[in-house]
């Protein structure tokens, strides 16, 4: 049987004010095509379905329409979804009764029975094309402090109490899972940051289990044959591939532009699991001008004026563009010029930065004490550093007024 592992959809995300809805809609079409082509039997979504706790009606509609489209193309597909730290757990679980009729199973909170974690409620059988159970998903939502039994910050032993409590939680769940699975592979699903994994600058929030930034990979017992993780957006392996982040669908920030986004395909075979990355096309390009460093405004003007896209490309799928301009004069006019150039081009402006070239100084200026520093001289120096020109008479007048509270 085949299992597809994906995560970190972040539906409802915006970038510099631009909606990503059209990109997500197109990506769902690519995902559906892969599910059909690969003849996938089960899909696992490891958290951060939504980008925030208050998804709009349009965002929720996109999720359910996409699930319906996927199920229409793959009627026998079983879908398992867990919550991430961005998700509104109540909203995810509210339609659970209806979703289960579509064979979509949502686990957004820890299930308990008689005060203890109910492992059976977290175990979802995964079936092959003949309807035979071939593996189990052990669905674990994003864990908060209240989810960890026996957590105490008064413990005297070495190590983090959060990590120790997380280790006990997963060990208990794994012990229950082993009894239920009866020798079949167990695919754990989680949403957290493991030590040793590479994070991105951008939308990955540094809040994990109980506020702990990262936890060691050994919190996942070896009883778990594969650990399908979400939270980090770069596709990557830990523990020789037993633990894997599938990554986000496409770049959600500038730091992700160089990633090879896609999904993970697991094939359950008699000799074990075969795991591979399956790239998916990007719904829209994410570009940086220049590719590295910064460029003068004259060069950028020539580049952006010649920039074209296919005539039938909708504006909602125009490339997202980051620009780094080298400042040789005042920064404000350069910013305004770059904004106008981008506004007239077939792009969506993701960000503009004005960078000043680093000047070589023969010798450092002598350090001054506070009593030796003249406030107005400090203002003039700072203004010249930022803007590349001396302050005008109006600037000096405004500074003096701010200093004295009186008109100059």
TrEMBL record:
Keywords: DNA recombination, DNA replication, Endonuclease, Exonuclease, Hydrolase, Nuclease. Pfam families: Metallophos. Residues 1-235 form the Calcineurin-like phosphoesterase domain. Gene3D superfamilies: 3.60.21.10. One of its GO terms (molecular function) is 3'-5' exonuclease activity. One of its GO terms (biological process) is DNA recombination. The keyword Hydrolase applies. It comes from the Bacteria. Coiled coil: none annotated. Belongs to the SbcD family. SbcCD cleaves DNA hairpin structures. These structures can inhibit DNA replication and are intermediates in certain DNA recombination reactions. The complex acts as a 3'->5' double strand exonuclease that can open hairpins. It also has a 5' single-strand endonuclease activity. Heterodimer of SbcC and SbcD. NCBIfam families: sbcd. This is Nuclease SbcCD subunit D. The lineage of its organism: Bacteria, Pseudomonadati, Pseudomonadota, Alphaproteobacteria, Rhodobacterales.
């Amino acid at each position: 049987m085949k299992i597809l592992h994906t995560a970190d959809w972040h539906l409802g995300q915006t970038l510099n004010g631009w909606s990503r809805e059209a990109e997500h809609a197109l990506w769902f079409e690519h995902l559906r095509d892969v599910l059909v082509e690969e003849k996938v039997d089960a899909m696992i979504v490891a958290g951060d379905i939504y980008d925030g706790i208050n998804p709009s009606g349009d965002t929720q509609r996109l999720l359910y329409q996409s699930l319906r489209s996927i199920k229409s193309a793959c009627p026998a597909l079983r879908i398992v979804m867990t919550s991430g730290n961005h998700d509104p757990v109540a909203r995810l679980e509210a339609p659970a009764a209806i979703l289960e009729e579509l064979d979509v199973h949502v686990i957004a909170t820890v299930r308990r029975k008689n005060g203890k974690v109910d492992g059976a409620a977290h175990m979802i059988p995964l079936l092959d094309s003949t309807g035979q159970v071939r593996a189990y998903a052990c669905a674990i939502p994003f864990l908060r402090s209240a989810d960890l039994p026996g957590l105490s910050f008064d413990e005297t032993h070495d190590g983090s109490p959060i990590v120790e409590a997380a280790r006990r939680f997963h060990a208990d769940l794994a012990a229950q899972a082993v009894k239920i699975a009866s020798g079949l592979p167990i695919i754990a699903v989680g949403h957290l940051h493991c030590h040793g994994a590479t994070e991105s600058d951008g939308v990955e929030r540094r809040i994990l289990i109980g506020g702990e930034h990262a936890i060691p990979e050994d919190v996942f017992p070896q009883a778990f044959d594969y650990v399908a993780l979400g939270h980090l957006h770069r596709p990557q392996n830990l523990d020789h591939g037993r633990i894997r982040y599938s990554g986000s669908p496409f770049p959600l920030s500038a730091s992700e532009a160089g990633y090879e986004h896609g999904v993970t395909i697991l094939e359950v075979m008699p000799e074990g699991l075969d795991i591979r990355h399956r790239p998916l096309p990007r719904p829209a390009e994410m570009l940086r001008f220049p590719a590295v460093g910064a460029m003068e405004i004259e060069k950028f003007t020539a580049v952006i004026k010649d920039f074209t896209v296919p005539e039938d490309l909708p504006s909602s799928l125009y490339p997202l563009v980051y620009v780094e301009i080298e400042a040789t004069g005042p920064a404000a006019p350069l910013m305004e010029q770059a904004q106008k150039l981008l506004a007239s081009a077939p792009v969506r402006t993701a960000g503009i930065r004005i960078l000043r070239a680093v000047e070589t100084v023969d010798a450092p200026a002598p350090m001054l004490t506070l009593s030796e520093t003249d406030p107005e001289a400090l203002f003039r120096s700072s203004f010249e550093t930022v803007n590349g020109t001396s302050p005008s008479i109006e600037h000096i007048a405004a500074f003096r007024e701010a200093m004295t509270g009186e008109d100059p």
